[in-house]
Specification:
There is one protein chain. The chain is mainly beta. It contains three helices and twelve strands, in the order ααββββββαββββββ. A twelve-stranded antiparallel beta sheet has the order 5-4-3-2-1-12-11-10-9-8-7-6. A hairpin with a 3-residue loop joins strand 7 and strand 8. The chain is globular and about 45 Å long. The relative contact order is 0.15.
Length: about 230
């Protein structure tokens, strides 16, 4: 299954500007996107803008939207493609963030990138993090560039951390927080990711993920794409 969607964000950092018009030709036209991108570029050169979209702004645009925040700033990304469980969320200049089951599995176009992930056959994210009742450990491999760091072993432990409430666009969600401790012995690197999970179906509304050493992304679902449930 494949779909294509596009959206315009009001303010974006330089490395996360939205897609240019060629991708959108034949879909929704370019005028609004062009005006927003020009405005975004002007704001980006003045510093590191932080996007604070309102519920009305998100509702006014009929696209699946994801807010991404890094140390460089934040932006609203658009869903460009769904291939099975793999979602591609697009920015400008070749920036793409690929997500499966709420986990970032690949990035392109950033200062350093996650080129790929080798996951275990019994992936806890595929089962659904809402099913966790006790800590679960597993091992995966990750590929990072630059530096030709391929197949780096990563030990991970997922731990349910209890119920919480989060607010997204003035709407409160009752969620489960799951913490993921990552340990990369070969790089002397340890970090903890956090996921805020819908207890009904495991959908991840919000996450803080270190996708590469020194590169963190916070992802918040503004207008989510919910995969059909069997």
């Amino acid at each position: 299954m494949s779909t294509a969607h596009a959206a315009a964000a009001r303010t974006l950092p330089a490395w996360f500007l939205l897609l240019a018009c060629p991708l959108l030709l034949g879909l929704h036209g370019c005028s609004e996107l062009s005006r927003s991108s020009i405005k975004a570029m002007r704001l980006a050169v003045k510093g590191r803008p932080q996007v604070q979209p309102t519920a009305a702004e998100v509702a006014a645009k009929p696209y699946f939207q994801l807010q991404a925040t890094s140390p460089e700033g934040s932006a609203v990304l658009i869903l460009g493609n769904v291939d099975g469980g793999r979602q591609a969320w697009y920015g400008n200049h070749g920036v793409v963030v690929f997500i499966e089951h709420g986990r970032v599995v690949q990035t392109t176009g950033l200062g350093q990138d996650l080129d790929g992930v080798q996951l275990p056959a019994d992936d806890p994210f595929a089962r659904g993090l809402q099913t966790l009742t006790a800590p679960v450990s597993y091992r995966m491999g990750k590929d990072w560039s630059p530096g030709y760091r391929y197949g780096v072993p990563v030990d991970a432990t997922l731990t349910p951390a209890g119920r919480e409430q989060i607010t997204i666009l003035d709407q409160t969600h009752d969620v489960l927080r799951v913490d993921e401790q990552l340990d990369v012995p070969s790089l002397h690197y340890r970090v903890t990711n956090h996921y805020w999970v819908d207890p009904r179906d495991g959908f991840i509304w919000k996450s803080d993920q270190q996708v590469a050493p020194g590169l963190s992304l916070q992802l918040v679902q503004l207008r989510p794409y919910r995969e059909p449930q069997p």
